[in-house]
Amino acid sequence: MQPYTADGLKDEIARRLQVDKGQKLEEASPKDVYYALASIVHGEIMPSWNKTQQKYKDKKAKQVYYLSMEFLIGSLIKSNLLNCGMLNQTIEALRKMGFHPEEIFAQEQDAALGNGGLGRLAACFLDSLSSLDYPGHGHGIRYRYGLFEQRIIHGNQVELPDYWLKDAYPWENRKEEEAILIHFRGEVHMFKKNDGSLEFKHENTDKVMAVPYDIPVVGYQNSTVNTLRLWSAEPYFPPEENEGQEDDFYHDLEHQHSIEQITGFLYPDDSNIEGKELRLKQQYFLVSSSIQNIIRQFKENYQLPLSRLPEKVVIQINDTHPSLGIPEMMRVLMDEENLSWDAAWKVTTGAFAYTNHTTLSEALETWPVEMTEGLLPRIYMIIHEINERFCRDLWFNHKEKREEIPQLAVIADGRVHMARLAIVGSFSVNGVARIHTEILKNQEMSGFYSLYPKKFNNKTNGITHRRWLLQANPGLAGLITDVIGPNWIRRPKQLISLMKYTKDRPLLEKFASAKQQNKQALANFIHQRTGIAVDPHSIFDVQIKRLHEYKRQLLNIFHVIYLYNELKDNPQLDVVPRTFIFGAKAAPSYYLAKEIIKLINTVASIVNYDKDVKDKLKVIFLENYNVSLAEKIIPAADISEQISTASKEASGTGNMKMMMNGALTIGTMDGANIEIHDLVGDDNMFIFGLSAEQVMDYYRHGGYSATDIYNTDDRVKRILDQLKLGEFGSQEIEFKDIYYNILSHNDPYFVLKDFEPYMEAHEIVERTYRDTYSWLQKSVTNIAYSGKFSSDHTIQQYATGIWNLKQFKEKE
Ligand code: 26M
C-alpha cells in the first residue's frame, strides 16, 4: 500500500466527488465525503487483498476458519485507515478541507452483528490474525438487522430496529458467482450400492441460495488482508423455471420473503436461550454455506485427497452455535464425496475445535429432536449415528462411565445437546480464562474431561490493542510512544517498559493530563447527549456491558443509592465527587434486566437534580451502548466495574480494555479479573467479595439467608424498603419485583452477601484516589501489564496450541 500525503488525499477526495457525484467539495455533505474516503481506502486495500489470497493459494498455506454467528465489528473506517497507514494524513486532509474528522468517521453505521463479548471477541481475533500474518478468515451471517437500537423513554428501554444497510455498506463485495445451495426439510431415501454400502439421497428439499459478501480484514501495516465472509439468504431459481410463472407471483413473493427471513435479524439474546426454529435455520444456514465453501476451496486449491484436509484446514467454532458444522461436514464427505463413515469421522474430528464461552446452564443450547429432524432430516440421522457410536463406545470401552451415559449422550430427554456434540466431534475444547477452563474441567464438563483429558485447554481472551488503545485513545498512545518508543505497537508486551517510569512524577503528570483530556471529551459528549453537566474532575466510575443479573449492575446501583442516602443525611459529608456511568442493553424479553435499567434511570433522575448532592454525585445512563460508544467511554474511565458473582463471568473483555486505558479495576475474583490480579496484585486493583469456591459451596449446600442480611444491615434494609415503597420516582414507579426477587428468591446472585465488602472496597477506592500520585502509579502499572491481554497474544496461543498454524510472512 502506497500511502497518500494529506494534500494528495484531499485532491483525491475532491476528484472522486466530482467524478462519481458531479459534486464540488463545497457542496459535499459529511456523508458524501465519508463515501469518497471509504472508496479510496477500499481501492488501496483491493490489491493487497488479491495478493494475499493468491499467495495462500500458491503456497498451499494451512488456513483457519473462525465460524461464528456473531461478528461485532463496529465501525471500520478508522481501523482500516490506521492499518493502511493513512489515518494521520486523513485527519490532516479532512481538517484542511474544513471538516471535523470524527464527524466524517461517524457517518459509518456500526455493524452491530453481535450481542456482546462473544461477538466482539470474534472481531478482535480477526484483527489479530491479519496483523500477525496468519491465514485466517471469519465466516458469519449478513443480518439485515443488527442488534436493536436502544432508546430510553421515561426510564424504560425501548427497542428500535437497526437497519444498518439502509445506506450502502462500502466495505462489502457481493460474490454471486460463489453462491452455494442449502437444503432444508425434504425426505431422505436410502439405497444399497453395488458394493453393499448404503447411499443416502436427500430429496424434495426447500432450497435456499447462500450468497457471500466479503469484507476485507486489514492487518496492521503489513499488506496482509484476510476475509470476513458473511452469508446472505436469497431465493433459489432453478435454471429451467426462469420464465413464465406469473400465476404463482404472490406465492413466490411469500416464499421469497420467508427465505430472506433466514438472514433477517440477529437474535438479541446472549444468555437465556429460546428454542426458536428460525434460529436453528440460521445456524444450519451458516454452517452449511461455510463447510461446503471450505471443502470446495480445499479441492480447488490443494489437489490433495480429502483425507488430508486437516493438514490444511482447521475450523474453530465460536460457542456451540455453529456445532451443526460437525454433522454437516460428515454429510458432505459421505454423501457427496463418498468417504466411509470412519474416514469422514477422522477428517471431521481432525478439523473441528470448539470454544466454550459460558457455564450458565440457561445458556447451554439444546434443540428438540422433532424440530431438528423435521428441519434437517439428513443431519439428524448423522447426529443420531454419532450418538449411537459414542454411547456404544462408552458402554463397551469405558465401563466406569455406564451410569453417566444419560448425562453424556448427545441425544437425551428428547433433545440434541449441542455442547456434547461439539465436544465429541472436536479435537480441542477450550475455555476463555483460566478459572473458566478449570470450572469446565472439574465441574460442568468433568464427565467429558475424564474421558478426553487431552482435548481440554485454556485460551484466555484478549482484545486488539490497536483499536482499543492506539485508535480509541491517541493521546495516551502517543504519550506511551514518546516514553518507550513505538515498538509496543507491534509487540504489546513491551508496554511493560512503562514500569521503569512509575516513580517519574513529571511523567505521571502527563499521564494524568491525557486521562483528563479524555474525561473532558466524555463530559462534553454526555452534556450534548443528556444535557447533564458532569464534573470532569470527579471519579469516572464505569460499568459497560450487557445487562444481566449475574453481572450485578444491581450491586453497583445499590452502592449509588447508599451514597445518596449518606449525602442526604449529611450534605456536608467530605466525599470525592463521583460520576457513575452505565451503558447496557437488556435482552428484549428479559423482564428483570429491564427493571434494573429502569431503576438505574430512575435513580439518575433523582440524584442528578437533587441540590443536596449537587457536585458530589451524578449518575449517567448512556443509551444505545455499542462499539462506537465504548470507544468514547473507555479512554475516560478511572474505575472499571467488574463485579460479577464469582464463577459466573467466563472471562470478560471490557475489564482488559479499561485496564489498557489506565483504569483501576474494582472486581470479584472471577473470569480474567483473576489473571489481571496475577499481574498487578492487590496493590493495583480492588478485589472484594465471595470467591468462586464459596459461591459454588453455597449453591451445593443451599445458600445463605438474604433475609438475615436485610434484617441486620440497616443500609441494606433502607435501600430495599425504598425500592418496595416506591421512594424512587412516584408511587407508580416502584421496584417491587427487584425487591421480591432478592428476598423471596433468596438473592441468587449474592448481591446482599457481597454488599458490605463492596462498600468497603469503594471506600478504599476513594482513599486511594485522594492520593493522586499513588493513583497514577497504579494506573500506569495497569497499562504496563495490559500487553498480555492483547488478542495478538491470544491468537499466538491458538495458532501454536490448537491450530498448528504458521505465520505467513513472505516478502515480495
Ligand atoms: C444463543 C442462542 C440463541 C440466541 C442467542 C444465543 C447466544 C448469543 C450470544 C448465547 C450466548 C451469547 O454470548 C455469550 C457471551 O457473550 N459470552 C461471553 O463471552 C465473552 C467472550 O468469551 C466472555 O468474555 C464473557 O465472559 C462471556 O459472558
UniProtKB/TrEMBL annotation:
E.C. designation(s): 2.4.1.1
Q: Which reaction does it catalyse?
A: [(1->4)-alpha-D-glucosyl](n) + phosphate = [(1->4)-alpha-D-glucosyl](n-1) + alpha-D-glucose 1-phosphate
**GO: which molecular function terms?**
1,4-alpha-oligoglucan phosphorylase activity
Q: Which domain of life is it from?
A: Bacteria
Q: Any idea which UniProt keywords this protein has?
A: Carbohydrate metabolism, Glycosyltransferase, Pyridoxal phosphate, Transferase
Which InterPro entries did the record assign?
Answer: Glycg_phsphrylas (IPR011833), Glyco_trans_35 (IPR000811), Pyridoxal_P_attach_site (IPR035090)
Q: Does the keyword Aminoacyl-tRNA synthetase apply?
A: no
Database matches in SUPFAM superfamilies? UDP-Glycosyltransferase/glycogen phosphorylase (SSF53756)
> Is the keyword Transferase assigned to this protein?
yes
Entry cofactors: pyridoxal 5'-phosphate
Q: Which family does it belong to?
A: Belongs to the glycogen phosphorylase family.
Q: Which NCBIfam families match?
A: P_ylase (TIGR02093)
Q: What does this protein do?
A: Allosteric enzyme that catalyzes the rate-limiting step in glycogen catabolism, the phosphorolytic cleavage of glycogen to produce glucose-1-phosphate, and plays a central role in maintaining cellular and organismal glucose homeostasis. Phosphorylase is an important allosteric enzyme in carbohydrate metabolism. Enzymes from different sources differ in their regulatory mechanisms and in their natural substrates. However, all known phosphorylases share catalytic and structural properties.
| Protein name, as recorded | Alpha-1,4 glucan phosphorylase
